Amino acid sequence: MALSAEQSGRLARLLTEHADRLTARWTEIVAGSLRGRLSQAELARQARELHRSIIDAGQHGLRDLADEHGGELRAVLAELSASRARQGFSATETAISVFALKDALLELMEQSRDADTLRDFVAYSALIDQMGLFTFESFVRTREGLIADQAEQLLELSTPVVKLWEGVVAVPLVGTLDSARAQVVMERLLQTLVDTGSPYAIIDITGVPAVDTQVAQHILKTVVAARLMGADCIISGIRPQIAQTIVALGIEFGDIATKASLADALRHVLRLTGVETATRRARRES
Amino acid sequence: MTAGVDLGVPATQAIRSDEDVVRVRQLVRTTAVAVKLSLVDQTKLVTAASELARNTLIYGGGGSAEVTTVEDGRRRGVRIVFADQGPGIADLDEAFTDGFTTGGGLGLGLSGARRLVDDFDIWTAVGEGTRITVIKWSR
Known about the structure:
The structure holds two protein chains of two kinds. By secondary structure, chain A is α/β, with parallel strands linked by helices. Chain A has ten helices and five strands. In chain A, helix 1 (5-17) packs antiparallel against helix 3 (40-59) and helix 2 (19-34) packs across helix 3. Chain B contains four helices and five strands, in the order E-H-H-E-E-H-H-E-E. Chain B has helices at residues 18-34, 39-58, 92-95, 109-116; strands spanning 5-15, 63-71, 76-84, 119-125, 129-137. In chain B, a hairpin with a 3-residue loop joins strand 4 and strand 5 (129-137).
C-alpha cells in the first residue's frame, strides 16, 4: 500500500501550490462539524500546522505514516488528538479533523480527469485514512490515561481515615472493596494509627453494598494488622441484610466487636475508655 | 431442582477480570430489583453471585454468567448460570466443606453461596469445566 516517493513529492507540491485554498476549505469543513466549539483561529492554526508537516513529510519522500519521515507528522497528530480528547470532543469529531483534508483535496483534484490524478488521489486518501486511524488511536490512549488518573484519584478520595474522638479513628468504607482498595485502606489506617497514637479504630461498612468472603477477608486482615500494632478494631454499619448474608455464608468475625451503627461503635469505645456520656436533663426549678 | 420457565431474554456477562465480577454483581442486582426480591434476598443473591463469579474467574480461569428472569407458575425468580471451561472440580465433597480452599480465600464461597440461594445445581468434569446454576425465588 502507501505512496510511491514521486506521489508523496507530488502531494507536497500540490499542498504547497494551493496552500491557502486548502487550509481555508479544511478549516471550514472542520468548523462545520465542531459547530463553533473551537475558535476559527485555533482551527486554522491546527490546519496550517498539519498542512506544513504533511508537506515536510512529502518532500522527504514519505511512503507510509509509520516510516521514519512520518515522525514529525505523527507528533503533530498525537498533539491534535490529545488536545481534542482533553477538551471533551468525541473520537469521531477528532478523526473528522483529519478526514476533512480528504474532502478538501477531492474538491481540488476532481477538476482534472486523467487516470494519474485518480491514482494519486486514491494513494493520498489511503495516507489520510492512516492519519485518521492514528489520530483515533492516540485519542483513545489519551482518554485511557485520563480514566486511569481518575481511578487513582478516586482510590485516594474514597478512603479517608477520620478522627472521631481523642484516641478513636474511623474508616468509612463506601462502594466496592476490591484488593487494590483494601490495600490502600489498610495502609492508611495503620499509618493513621501510628500518627495519632490511637488505640481504637472503627471500620464502618454502611456504604458497602455486599459483604462477600473476599470483602470479609480484607476486613479481617486489616483488623489483625491493627491488632498487631496494639489497636482494637470495631466493625460498624452492619445492616440487617448484611448480617443475614454473613451468617448464611458462614463468616465468623470471632471476638471482633461489631455494631449496627457508627454511633453505637463510638459509644462502645467511649465506654471502654471510661468517658461518660450523659444526657443533660433540664433542671426544674420548684 | 425446579428449572422454571424463562421470562425474557437472558443477559450474559463475560467474566475475565475483577471488574467483570463487579459488573455481574450490578447485573444481578438490577434483575433482582426488577423481580421484586426483598432487600435481604437481593443482598443474598448478589453476594452468592459475587462468590461464584469470583470462583469462575480464579479457579475456572474465566467464563461467563447468564442472568435470566424465571417463573414457576406461582412466583418469579432470578436464575444465574456460571460456566467456565477450566480444570473442573475433582472432589465435590471436599469443595463443599466449609473452610476448604485451594486458593488463599476463606473457603466459604462455594458452600456459602449454596446456603444463600434457593436452588443450587452443579455440573463439573475434570478437564472440561464447571457449570453452576442457582435460582433465588421471590417470596
